[in-house]
Write a structure and sequence with these properties.
Chain B: InterPro entries: Aminotransferase_I/II_large (IPR004839), Asp_trans (IPR000796), PyrdxlP-dep_Trfase (IPR015424), PyrdxlP-dep_Trfase_major (IPR015421), PyrdxlP-dep_Trfase_small (IPR015422). The structure holds two protein chains of two kinds. Helices cover about 45% and strands about 15% of the residues of chain A. Chain A contains 16 helices and 13 strands. In chain A, helix 8 links the parallel strand 7 and strand 8 (about 220-225). In chain A, helix 7 (about 170-180) runs parallel beside helix 8. In chain A, about 55% of the residues are buried. Chain B has two domains: about 15-50 and about 315-405, Aspartate Aminotransferase, domain 1 (Alpha-Beta Complex), CATH 3.90.1150; about 75-310, Type I PLP-dependent aspartate aminotransferase-like (Major domain) (Aspartate Aminotransferase, domain 2, 3-Layer(aba) Sandwich), CATH 3.40.640. In chain B, a hairpin with a 4-residue loop joins strand 5 (about 160) and strand 6. Classes of the chains: A alpha/beta, B alpha/beta. The interface between A and B is large, with 83 and 81 residues.
């Protein structure tokens, strides 16, 4: 008798748009094809870049025969956790000095979001309260929804963020959603270089956001995947996170070192926790440990070791900041050049947003039909939302891309 | 504004309490026999020499590219891990009905497998179990399954504490009596924490009942090759079920057999009944992975793929783990011999019948406490211990201590 199949009715899951884009790009034979959908840094030659400081530290690790080959502690490498939190909050952060900052080493930024979400689902706003609303920006990184939903939250909603008409932040919409959110709602905020719009609140705008969040007792969950990568300066990119901490908020901050260390495949992340006091923090960390144990038991060591060695050595740290600035500068250059070329071509519309936006991504403002034109006619791959990755631009392809945008805007409505 | 005010502290786990007590213990003869790693004669994690060599080479390999891997991990690693578990000639492989997903260690494989089962074991209803675990088992297994949403967990009888062995008849009874189509978590080899495994004859009887009751096997294979020193023998139960046409999941870990503890190299094997299901299940697995960790870390998987994919490396690797296993077998024999010489009554044959990292001693609660408090020897409360943590320096002391624990009056 043949055993029954337990899986006869499994439907195919929908493909993730950005991965499909990359697959289509790969299969395209056109010699002029350009991939503006990729979510990783590329050099001016269109290649992935191993940071020179990373090469250096890899060698240090490979030559170190005294290394411990055991399981890492469940919460991760201690030196990594503390130095990563310092990067986010600033070395002289009062919260750190008051011993109320803790951290959990996680599998990339996603892992940090996951662990944070699992904790909040169990212990925030009552016990096992799956009905607490989780707000994510409209639009946001497509995985935010899935991570919180899979952590058990039943109510994941958008908060107004992007104003498509004025191509900027919809501050009044954002603030009004904050005002009307139920108390204790969780808000996922992008620390800098908003994905996908590249549009960040100004310092003054952040202050307004913080004021409402404090008054309405809303929970702050920062997603910080681009620190250093946005402006080229670590401290500048961490301003929002540090401001909230200075205002007395207890926060979670999911940090990723995938982009700013180029360690995409080593999954290096850190969940920084700022609590009111050390006693609270200790209890929270014990719960975090339990959650980690049932998810991946303990984290991988290689990437964390690499980051930790770099951050804790003044020379290597300086070299890293320099490498990060190199990447950020290239992006800034491509932004400036793209805007200049579009203006020179006389492309209709304003293109200020290209240089006003920050980080890897830019919301061009191209509509879906224009995007289709770019993809199908010009073999330039970008997201249906009009999002492009500035890293996909090089000095060799920027003219072609600018001309193509010009064509799309002038011939396709 | 206080966000975390009501969060209670988690009491420390058994492992954590034990380790804390050991760390506080200043006695020069203290011995810790409850750790999770396979240790060599020097008391350091066992790493097959070929693995150290490949790791060194890869550490500075200029051709490794920093890019996000697929959610399912490295295809080459998955291919080799699948072949290792099922045998290269496996029908299931040639019929292309095996899905392999690289995971974050064995724990990650169990978590992902549980999440998949919870959603897709019975797509027509909201299935929540039952899932059966051996008694005893790794205490985190139940927690992982619960976290994945499995509501109904039960235990099947497995270890007979009195005989220090397997109670097969009771096991079979439990499998016959639990609801049809239950998911049964089975240890292919090197059962944790008892070290007791089923014989091939036992497995044949178990699989017969599984077929009759239409149960679904979820295998754990934490250390293929490290139990009997033979990768094929250690994987035999999984292969046997596959040969019977069963669907199954298998959570593999490469922590012990590659000494890659810090690298978190795991693999979830899904053997499906038909090839037509493969793409759908794969897409669902990808979707789940993205909500857990997006994609796994690649370093360790690269090492495993390189070693398993090269015939010369493969042979060297097998020799390496065989050597580690032989040392453990020697420790088991020596321990048994020492206990006999000390005049310990009772049978210690079970010591050499068992295989793998852990072994059961049959010591009771009080005896275990005696070991810790009076002799500074730390083993798990259920009397099980990590045999690899015993070496020529501490063997006599440990044997003496066990003997004393057994003979001291209470």
């Amino acid at each position: 008798v043949a055993p029954p199949s337990g899986k006869t009715e499994v439907p195919q899951a929908a493909p993730v748009a950005v991965f499909k884009l990359t697959a289509d790009f790969r299969d395209d034979k056109d010699p002029n094809k350009v991939n503006l959908g990729v979510g990783a840094y590329r050099t001016d030659e269109g290649q992935p870049w191993v940071l020179p400081v990373v090469r250096k530290v890899e060698k240090i690790i490979a030559d170190d025969h005294s290394l411990n080959h055991e399981y890492l502690p469940i919460l991760g490498l201690p030196e990594f956790r503390s130095s990563s939190s310092k990067i986010a909050l600033g070395e002289d952060s009062p919260a750190i000095l008051e011993n109320r900052v803790g951290a959990v080493q996680c599998l990339g930024g996603t892992g940090a979001l996951k662990i944070g979400a699992e904790f909040l689902h169990r212990w925030h706003n009552g016990q096992d309260n799956t009905k607490t609303p989780v707000y994510v920006s409209a639009p946001t990184w497509e995985n935010h929804n899935a991570v919180f939903a899979n952590a058990g939250f039943e109510d994941v909603r958008p908060y107004k963020y992007w104003d498509a008409e004025k191509r900027g932040l919809d501050l009044s919409g954002f603030l009004s959603d904050l005002e009307s959110a139920p108390e204790h709602s969780i808000f996922v905020l992008h620390a800098c270089a908003h994905n996908p719009t590249g549009t960040d609140p100004s310092q003054d705008e952040w202050k307004q956001v913080a004021e409402v969040m404090k008054r309405r007792n809303l929970f702050v969950f920062f997603d910080s995947a681009y620190q250093g990568f946005a402006s080229g300066c670590l401290d500048k990119d961490a301003w929002a996170v540090r401001y909230f901490v200075s205002q007395g908020f207890e926060i979670f901050c999911a940090q990723s070192f995938s982009k700013n260390f180029g360690l995409y495949n080593e999954r290096v992340g850190n969940l920084t926790i700022v609590a009111k006091d050390n006693e609270n923090l200790t209890r929270v960390l014990s719960q975090m440990e339990k959650i980690v144990r049932i998810t991946w038991s303990n984290p991988p060591s290689q990437g964390a070791r690499l980051v930790s060695i770099t951050l804790n050595d003044p020379e290597l740290f300086a070299e890293w900041k320099d490498n990060v600035k190199t990447m950020a500068d290239r992006v800034l250059l491509m932004r400036a050049q793209l805007k200049a070329k579009l203006q020179a071509l006389g492309t209709p519309g304003t293109w200020e947003h290209i240089t006003e936006q920050i980080g890897m991504f830019s919301f061009t403002g191209l509509n879906p039909q224009q995007v289709q034109y770019m993809v199908k006619q010009k073999h330039i791959y970008l997201m249906a939302s009009g999002r492009i990755n500035m890293c996909g631009l090089t000095t060799k392809n920027i003219d072609y891309v600018a001309e193509s945008i010009h064509e799309a805007v002038t011939t396709v409505q | 504004m206080r966000a975390f005010l009501d969060t209670p502290a988690v009491p420390p786990t058994q492992q954590a309490r034990l380790l804390a007590a050991f760390s506080r213990d200043a006695h020069p003869d203290r011995v810790y026999l409850a750790g999770g790693e396979h240790l060599n004669e020097e008391g350091k994690p066992t790493i097959p020499p070929i693995v150290s060599q490949i790791k060194q080479q890869m550490g500075t390999d200029p051709t490794l590219i920093p890019e996000y891997p697929s959610a399912l991990g490295l295809p080459e690693f998955s291919r080799r891990a699948t072949e290792l578990a099922l045998g290269r000639e496996s029908r299931a492989i040639t019929e292309n009905r095996v899905l392999g997903v690289q995971t974050v260690g064995g724990a990650g494989a169990v978590r992902l497998g549980a999440e998949l089962l919870r959603r897709w074991y019975d797509a027509s209803s909201s299935w929540r179990g039952p899932v059966l675990l051996s008694s005893p088992c790794d205490e985190s297994l139940a927690e992982i399954l619960e976290a994945a949403g499995i509501g109904e967990l039960r235990q099947y009888q497995f270890w007979d504490a009195e005989r220090c062995g397997l109670c097969v008849e009771k096991l079979l009874e439990d499998l016959k009596e639990c609801p049809e189509q239950s998911v049964i978590v089975l240890s292919a080899s090197a059962h944790y924490p008892t070290g007791v495994d089923l014989s091939q004859e036992d497995w044949k009887r178990v699989s017969e009942v599984m077929l009759m009751r239409r149960h679904f096997p979820f295998f754990l294979m934490p250390a293929q090759g490290m139990c009997k020193g033979d990768i094929d023998q250690d994987a035999w139960p999984v292969r046997h079920c596959v040969s019977l046409g069963m669907e199954l999941l298998c959570a593999q870990s490469f922590s012990h057999n590659f000494g890659l503890y810090g690298d978190r190299v795991g693999h979830l094997l899904c053997v499906l009944r038909e090839n037509s299901l493969l793409l759908a299940v794969q897409s669902q697995a990808e979707k789940l992975v993205r909500t857990l960790w997006s994609c796994p870390s690649v370093g360790g998987a690269h090492v495993v793929a390189t070693v398993l994919g090269n015939p010369a490396h493969f042979v060297e690797w097998q020799a390496g783990i065989r050597g580690a296993v032989e040392r453990c077998m020697l420790v088991r024999e020596s321990l048994r011999e020492k206990l006999r010489l000390l005049g310990s009554t009772g049978q210690w044959d079970h010591l050499i019948k068992q295989g793998g990292l852990y072994c059961s001693t049959g010591l009771n609660d009080q005896q275990v406490e005696f070991l810790a408090k009076r002799r500074h020897v730390y083993i798990l409360p259920n009397g099980c211990l990590n045999i690899s943590a015993i070496n020529s320096r501490n063997l006599d002391y440990v044997a003496e201590s066990i003997h004393m624990a057994l003979t001291s009056p209470f």
